[in-house]
Amino acid sequence: MALENSKEKNFSDWYAEVVQKSEMADYSSIQGCMVVRENAYGVWEAIQEAFNAMIKAIGHRNALFPLFIPKSLLTKEAEHFAGFTPEVAWVTRGGDTELSEPLAIRPTSETIMYESYAKWIHSHRDLPLLLNQWCTVVRWETKATKPFIRTREVPWQEGHTVHATKEEADAEVMLILGFYKKILEEYLAVPVLIGKKSDGEKFAGALYTTTCEALMPDGKALQSATSHNLGQNFAKAFGIRFKDKDETEQYAWQASWGMSTRVIGAMIMVHGDDKGVVIPPRVAPLKVVIIPIAYSKPEDAKKVAKYCEGIYAKLKAAGISVKLDDRDDKSAGWKYNEWELKGVPLRLEIGLKDIEKDAVMMVRRDTGQKNSVAKEGLEKSVEDELEKMQHQLFEKAKKSRDERISDAKDYGEFKKALEDKKGFVRMSFCDERECEETINKETTATVRLISFDDHKPKHKACGHCGKPAKVTAYFAKSY
RNA sequence: GGGGGAUUGGGGUAGCCUGGCAUCCUUCCAGCUUUGGGAGCUGGAGACCCCAGUUCAAAUCUGGGAUCCCCCA
């Protein structure tokens, strides 16, 4: 067994161990600031590539705004500032000189971006403005940090768009939420529920927030990406106005949306096992590793090496990300364990027995299944198996997630489901802040999302307080 | 926010109570040998989290700090 901790028995320790040993992340000497290592950064690059393609196809472009935000700017939208102020890191000196105004290290970039937006937008012809940036933000977390899941410096993307009408902003919010769902489900193979946040959980300064929520094996929900309609709140604070076709001056409507490397934490938690991480093929930086079986007879060794090189060239020519692990100081078994730890989706074991059959032994990372596959048409066999694995990972995760969604018609059922099933509990809800806070105090669960498609709640009364139910809400404990 | 535990070569650890030569496994380097699920032998390199204090002497005792993990709110 590659790992000392078991995912089943000791989830937190397992996570800390697997993250480090698989070379996804490492700790640094700054609390809560992790090193995103090559293996995880490769996954992030795959996410960037996929997401950039999605947003650029409909007119978004990438830009990069300053890391620092003057205090006066950050405080302009009162609700926003109040929401972020406890966790802002400040720069107060430059060299030996005290700064005349403290500079915040961006906790999110609404304010620094919208100062510019106000200068750039004058006419309806300037709209929509569709920008995104890939960067890191800093939130000075004081609670326990966890690699990828909660860190002080967070690599992410943040999109900030400006529209002429509320309807257009609404459409943008939903469009991007759909992209996030696609990235999580079709790339990371992590099933998510989508919906709206309650007032208590929405983004500071937003009209409303939508979210993708995943469920981790320990029963905690993980907010994986959010997309907000900011209304005209920021437009009014920053003076983002435009002259419409009818020559009236109007405040713009805005949306903002973000997804961070947290989703990599979700991927590790959902798919990993006691051998290491499992990286879904579509985001795996390395998809196939070839492991030659070594022999002491020089002619045998040569024969295997040559055959392996042929297989390697064949796959590489087909555009498949492949590595030939021909290190001569490690045994085959050792290599199996190492690549399993790192989560490479497919392994090809090649020895004399395979060469005789003009085949390779193909092994799946997730199931351990071994199949002898013909050399002829290997590219297709590999691609098919990768695609199959991608789907099976998602289906397995979805089944497990679905089994942990329960329905509660009253508070007794609610508490029981929360304890027994350890997952999402669906309940008709009054959507009042006070009621939400009471439930949180008594059970530690929060409203993770309010269902979109189910606005007519199943029951007439709120499962907790008995007042008229307005919505169907999904509750869970969360990270 | 509250409580508990931990920190010793690159990784994992013993030693700490009762102060004095730092244990074992793994990794790394050299060589031989081996290779279908973490092989073996020989030789070599490498460590007491940081800052003060007590002491002839501190991994060990005292105070402060940093970081990590866990549990509870």
Integer tally of domains: 3
Strand content: 25-35%
CATH architecture of the largest domain: 2-Layer Sandwich
Radius of gyration: 25 Å
Number-wise, the strands total 23
Give the overall average pLDDT.
93
Provide the low-confidence segments as ranges. Answer: none
- CA-to-CA gap between the ends? 28 Å
In this structure, how is the largest beta sheet organized? 11 strands, mixed
CATH homologous superfamily assignment of the largest domain: Bira Bifunctional Protein, Domain 2
Count of helices?
14
Q: Which class best fits the helix and strand makeup?
A: alpha+beta
The helix content is 25-40%
CATH uppermost class of the largest domain: Alpha Beta
Question: Which fold name corresponds to the CATH topology of the largest domain?
Answer: BirA Bifunctional Protein, domain 2
Please state the overall shape, judged from the principal axes of the Cα atoms.
Answer: globular
With strands numbered from the N-terminus, the spatial order across the biggest sheet is 3-7-8-14-11-10-9-22-23-21-20
Q: Any overview of this molecule?
A:
There is one protein chain. This protein has 479 residues and is α+β, with helices and mostly antiparallel strands. It folds into three domains: 11-271, BirA Bifunctional Protein, domain 2; 288-385, Anticodon-binding domain (Rossmann fold, 3-Layer(aba) Sandwich), CATH 3.40.50; 405-476, C-terminal domain of ProRS (Translation Initiation Factor IF3). It is built from 14 helices and 23 strands. The strands form five sheets. Strands 3-7-8-14-11-10-9-22-23-21-20 form an eleven-stranded mixed beta sheet. It has a five-stranded mixed beta sheet with strand order 16-15-17-18-19, with helices on both faces. Strands 4-6-5 form a three-stranded antiparallel beta sheet. α2 (38-56) runs antiparallel to α6 (166-187). The longest helix has 25 residues, at 378-402. The chain is globular and about 85 Å long. The model has no long low-confidence stretch (mean pLDDT 93). The chain binds one RNA strand of 73 nucleotides through residues 2, 4, 12-13, 16, 20-21, 27, 29-31, 142-145, 291, 293-296, 328, 330-338, 349, 351-354, 361, 441, 444.
